[in-house]
Structure formats: C-alpha cells, structure tokens
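Pipeline run #58 for the internal structure catalog. This entry was flagged by the ingest filter as a single-chain record with no existing model, so it goes straight to prediction. Upstream metadata was stripped on purpose; only the residue string is passed forward. Reviewer on rotation: M.T. Logging verbosity set to normal.
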Amino acid sequence: MTEVPRRIILIVDDDIDFSESLSRLLSLENYNVLCADSMETAMQAVRQHDVAVALVDIRLGSGNDGLDVVRELRRINPDLMCLMITAFASVDTAIQALQAGAYDYLSKPFHSEDMLSTLDRCFERIQLLNVQKLTEVRLRQKQHMEAIGQLASGIAHDFNNILAVLLSNLRLLEERIGTAHPQFTELVSEAITATLTGGELTSRLLNFGSRPDDQEQTIDLVEMLPDFVAMLKRTLGQKWGASLDMPDRLNSLVVSRGLLETSLLNLALNARDAMEGGGTVAITARNHHVGSALAGKGTHEITGGFVAISVTDTGTGMSRDVRAHALEPLFTTKKRGDGNGLGLTMVDNFARTHGGWIEIESTPRQGTTMTLFLPGRFQA
C-alpha cells in the first residue's frame, strides 16, 4: 500500500497577519500548519516535526534571507518541498529560488486556488518520490536476499558432500562393529542421527537458495508443520520451547515450501528474541473463511477460504507506533548488529505475492501474535 504523504505545512514569514490568514485558509483545507518568523524558529520546527512543505517568504526581517532559509531547511531535511513566496517576481528571482532548492514559487498577491493547486503538485511529487523510494528499497532487498540465497545454496551443496562422505563411513563403521561392542554401536548410531539432522538443515538451506517460481508445490500442513516445529525446537536454543496446535484436517497450500518455512522461521525467531528470559513459541493453524473483507491494510478485497498460521510469544510486545511501522522495509527495534529490518518485510511480501496478508496483534509487556493468512485449497 502506498504511504499517504504527511500533510504538515510550515509557513515562514515575519508578517504575522499574513501568516495567520494563510494558516486559517490551509487549516480549512485539512492541512496541519506551523508558523515561523525567522530562520531559527523555522529550523527548530523542521527538526521537531515531520514537515512536508515549507512556504518561505523571500524577504524576512532580522537580516534573514528566504533563500538562505530554504538552503538550511533542505540541509536538515533534503526531502522537504519548499515554495518561495515573493512580491518581487522576476526571472532572476525564479532562478535564484530554484538554485536554492525551492520546488516552485508563488507571487504575492496570489489566489487561493493557485496556491492550493501548487500544493497539490507538491504532494503528488512527494507521493511519487515515496513510491520510488519504496521500489528502490524492495529492489535492494530482493537483490540482497538473492545473494544470500546463492551463498546459502553454495555452502549447503558443499556441506552436503561432506555429510555424504561422513555418513557413508559411519554406515560402514556400523556394519563392521555389529553387535560386538554395544557401547560403540550406540555412539555410532547417535553420530548417524546427527549427520542425518545436518542433512535436513542443508536441504532447508538449498530450498532457501532456490527460485520460488520453480518450487511451488501443494503443501499438506498436517504433514509439514510437525516436522517444522521439531526442527524449530533444535534451532531456538535451550531457554525456549515450541508448541503446535492444529486440527486433524487443514486446507492445503500451493506455495514454495522453502519460502513458507523461511517465513515461519522469521516469525518464530522474532518471537524468541521478544522473550529474552526464555519461553514458548506457540504455533497454531486453522482454516479461515472470509465472506468479504479488506486484506491487511485495506489494499484489496478478499474472499474465500484461507489458512491462518499464527506465531505467538509472551514477550515484550509492541507499542501502537511500532506495530504501525513493523512491516516497513529496514524498520527494526533491535540494536545495531542484531537485525536489519528485512525479516517481517520478507514475510509480508511472501504473503501478498501469494494472495494473502499478515496481521499483528500485540500488547506491550504481554506478547505478540503474528498471523499469516494464505489462500487454502479444500482437501477432500
């Protein structure tokens, strides 16, 4: 969903009557308006508020020059859209305003329709820039994940070869020992089991590095989820456990198994990290029918049968503000080095690509439930 541009406007003018009049007009048009009468107060407003557009008078009192104000404001926030207001319109003035970083200029006196039309253009440009930035972030994310996938696939392939040699020798050793030395037989058996477990993990790495379009298959969740939870228990660490609650029958999914497991693993690791002192990551699955509703943040209408897979923790939970930004690319509350803010974005992208969505329920200091909704197929 495209982000709605913020509608905070800053008026920078030392003519108090003009500022108040313009502020009232913009407020009637549902803009949030701030006023400043000098460079210092304007800079303070931009630092403290998420200002989208600044209307700056070219001539201010107290020795301030509007062009210098525009330069300083854009130095603080390079994305700020600035409109120069001038009573001395000329080609030179327009050139100077544009060189200073202004997007456009308005000549006093101006009609309100002209000003509102210019503001509309500003916000349309902000919208386009937001879309462009989001596209660039997602492209970088995709390239980053493809590179990680290729690396993981290469490592897994080489490690698989090592495990194959190890397993072959262990099998031979098991045959030679036979039943003559029970204590050694048990040790070899444990080594074979550990080697097979390593083979399972490398298979998951190979799935992670594969192309999703080539790997879509019908997934029986009743068969897949117990194996996944068993692997999860080995992955989370000694202080954490994992539980599974699901009915005997679930609709099947048509997705890449590797991407589904990677998405669930991301959710499970986030749940673990939210419970620093330990706890249980609870996974539940159920069939979910939607009559007619809006998916996720209201991006599109959905209907039909879905499977809801939830991952619940009893950890720190999220504030309303964190919850609102949780699915944004590169947003993370973890300290530097502990996360890059791509995990939930990957899960969200996986869900939307397959016609589903993700929902977040969270209460600070009580825990979080992340639910992945994916289109299901009825199994006879």
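catalog note: The longest strand covers residues 279-294.
catalog note: The chain has three domains: 8-110, 136-208, 216-375.
status: ready for reviewer M.T.
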